[in-house]
């Protein structure tokens, strides 16, 4: 589902690459947690996957799309196939919960009737029924993040990328978000989650890929988080 | 296939809706853009009408001008026919008309019907007026070939007098042509200058809107919105500017005609024949409105397109 082969990303004239020969293979329907300190390269990795950045070298194939052959004008098509959740939610502040989720469908030309039919189902999945008419500012951080997840999955992507979705949340709210991600994974979506929250990683017991200084230093199935003692 | 078409249609409607909402939301910015576009389009419309009116004035004066060739009484019918045919064969000839002695006399009597003394004097002698050929040229500024033909010895010998060229009118026409040419140039420069200013202001308006909504645009891009979905509303917004400005400019000119119609009806303001201008405006109302709409929309779309281009490159580093 996701394949990275010796991917290197160097910004400008920086001496050390942000990502150094990253090779990673994620199977369909897997739930992978990418951990590492701030600045380790987690966000860079995700930005490569959403094609906000191009790798300096190496190969990336996501959902059968070879990024080397991807033309700029096809980037919107790629992004419609990948659901993305951001640490800062990126909700539209002047739209209600319902409108924020509907927005993702409006972009691709889904009819209003279909939107009315689909959005409540997604709200059900993220446990936000009854809050359709709230504005983002009226919601807690955890609720906002679940709106963002609902928006990311409403188009039924095969891959969901979540960049530190729990970064701004306390443990209880963070765990609510993670439970939603697990639920989505059970429905058949490949999930790639980055976090530096040790508690969550330990409780999740999923495949954990650890990045440090732009390199993958460990890749273990059903693992807990192993503190990088060097830092 | 049908699904794709349906989705495109829905997307199109959403883009138009978003454009209208954006226009209403940015009302104060929109006022500035529309105002400058109204000025531009009013100048354009004024230029079109003025140009047509000048053209009409020149055509009217020119049509009254002709060349009169006075023949000797002794010229035979055959000679006259030959001369007429030769004249018709010359370039720049609109019409050639032969008037015999009696016709000329009747015209003369009609023109001087109020002057009884003159009429009496003429009736007492045998008809002193020569048979006359009236020549109307297409372009009064290009009659040198006619002149040289008439001064050829074999042609000159048939004439009782030198031909008359309506000389004073020719000078007047030259002046009018000169003045209209200058005015036309001034008009073109003004139209170009205002079009550029107008495009720049719309350009700025849209850039400010984009700046205000840059977060929203970034989110749209991350969610996979296509270029046209992001750009569309801005284009629609500028099309609205264009439509409003076109309608207002036509309205302003119309109001100007209404305001002046009482005071200056059937009069000429120097070179500008206002009643003709008014008729021209009324008769071509729909065409002029369409031209204004097209110009307004073109200016709007072009500036919106350029303003959004920079923000919409899906270029990855």
Structural overview:
The complex is a heterodimer of chains A (231) and B (317). Chain A is α/β, with parallel strands linked by helices. Chain A has a single domain, classed as Rossmann fold (3-Layer(aba) Sandwich). Chain A has seven helices and ten strands. Chain A has helices at residues 42-49, 75-81, 97-107, 112-125, 141-153, 171-186, 198-204, and strands spanning 2-9, 19-26, 31-35, 57-62, 65-66, 82-85, 159-163, 190-195, 206-212, 215-223. Chain A has a six-stranded mixed beta sheet with strand order 6-7-8-3-9-10, sandwiched between helices. Chain A has a four-stranded antiparallel beta sheet with strand order 2-1-4-5, with helices on one face. The longest helix of chain A has 16 residues, at 171-186. Chain A is globular, with a radius of gyration of 18 Å. Mean pLDDT of chain A is 88; it is low at 227-231. Chain B has 317 residues and is mainly α. Chain B has two domains: 2-61 and 172-312, no CATH class; 66-165, Alpha-Beta Plaits (2-Layer Sandwich). Chain B is built from twelve helices and five strands. Chain B has helices at 2-25, 27-64, 77-89, 101-111, 116-124, 144-150, 153-156, 167-212, 214-222, 227-264, 274-283, 285-309, and strands at residues 67-70, 93-99, 132-137, 268-269, 272-273. Chain B has a three-stranded antiparallel beta sheet with strand order 1-3-2. In chain B, α2 (27-64) crosses α10 (227-264), α8 crosses α12 and α10 packs antiparallel against α12. Chain B is elongated, with a radius of gyration of 32 Å. The mean pLDDT of chain B is 81. The chains are: A alpha/beta (231), B mainly alpha (317).
């Amino acid at each position: 589902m996701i394949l990275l082969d010796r991917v290197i990303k160097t910004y400008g004239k920086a001496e050390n690459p942000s990502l150094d020969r990253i090779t990673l293979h994620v199977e369909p329907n897997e739930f992978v947690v990418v951990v590492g300190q701030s600045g380790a390269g987690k966000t860079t990795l995700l930005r490569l996957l959403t094609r906000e950045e191009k790798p300096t070298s190496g190969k990336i194939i996501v959902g059968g799309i070879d990024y080397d052959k991807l033309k700029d004008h096809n980037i919107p098509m790629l992004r419609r196939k990948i659901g993305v959740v951001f640490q800062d939610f990126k909700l539209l502040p002047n739209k209600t919960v319902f409108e924020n989720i509907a927005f993702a469908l409006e972009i691709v030309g889904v009819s209003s009737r279909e939107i009315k039919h689909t959005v409540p189902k997604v709200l059900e999945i993220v446990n936000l029924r009854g809050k359709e008419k709230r504005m983002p500012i009226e919601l807690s951080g955890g609720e906002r993040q679940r709106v963002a997840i609902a928006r990311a999955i409403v188009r039924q992507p095969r891959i969901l990328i979540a960049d530190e979705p729990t970064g701004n949340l306390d443990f209880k709210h963070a765990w609510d978000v993670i439970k939603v991600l697990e639920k989505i994974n059970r429905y058949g979506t490949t999930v790639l989650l980055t976090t530096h929250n040790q508690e969550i990683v330990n409780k999740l017991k999923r495949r954990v890929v650890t990045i440090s200084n732009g390199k993958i230093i460990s890749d273990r199935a059903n693992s807990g988080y192993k503190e990088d003692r060097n830092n | 296939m049908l699904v794709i078409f349906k989705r495109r249609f829905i997307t199109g409607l959403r883009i138009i809706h978003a454009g209208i909402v954006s226009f209403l939301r940015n009302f104060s910015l929109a006022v500035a853009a529309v105002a400058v576009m109204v000025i531009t389009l009013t100048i354009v419309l004024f230029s079109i009408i003025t140009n047509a009116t000048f053209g009409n004035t020149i055509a009217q004066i020119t049509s009254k001008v002709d060349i009169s060739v006075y023949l000797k009484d002794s010229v035979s019918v055959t000679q006259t026919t030959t001369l007429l045919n030769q004249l018709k064969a010359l370039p720049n000839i609109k019409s050639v008309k032969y008037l015999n002695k009696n016709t000329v006399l009747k015209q003369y009597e009609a023109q001087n019907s109020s002057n009884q003394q003159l009429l009496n004097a003429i009736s007492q002698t045998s008809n002193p007026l020569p048979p006359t050929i009236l020549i109307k040229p297409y372009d009064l500024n290009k009659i040198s070939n006619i002149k040289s033909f008439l001064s050829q010895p074999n042609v000159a010998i048939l004439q009782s007098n030198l031909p008359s060229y309506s000389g004073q009118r020719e000078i007047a026409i030259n002046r009018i042509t000169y003045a209209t040419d200058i005015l036309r140039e001034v008009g073109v420069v003004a139209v170009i200058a205002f079009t550029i200013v107008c495009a720049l202001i719309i350009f700025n308006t849209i850039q400010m809107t984009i700046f205000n909504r840059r977060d929203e645009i970034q989110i749209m891009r991350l969610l996979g919105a296509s270029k046209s979905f992001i750009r569309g509303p801005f284009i629609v917004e500028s099309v609205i500017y264009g439509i409003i400005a076109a309608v207002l400019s036509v309205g302003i000119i119309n109001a100007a005609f209404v305001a002046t119609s009482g005071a200056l009806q059937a009069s000429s303001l120097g070179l500008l024949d206002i009643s003709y201008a008014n008729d021209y405006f009324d008769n071509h109302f729909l065409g002029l409105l369409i031209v204004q709409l097209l110009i307004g929309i073109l200016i709007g779309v072009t500036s919106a397109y350029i303003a959004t281009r920079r923000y919409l490159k899906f270029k990855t580093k």
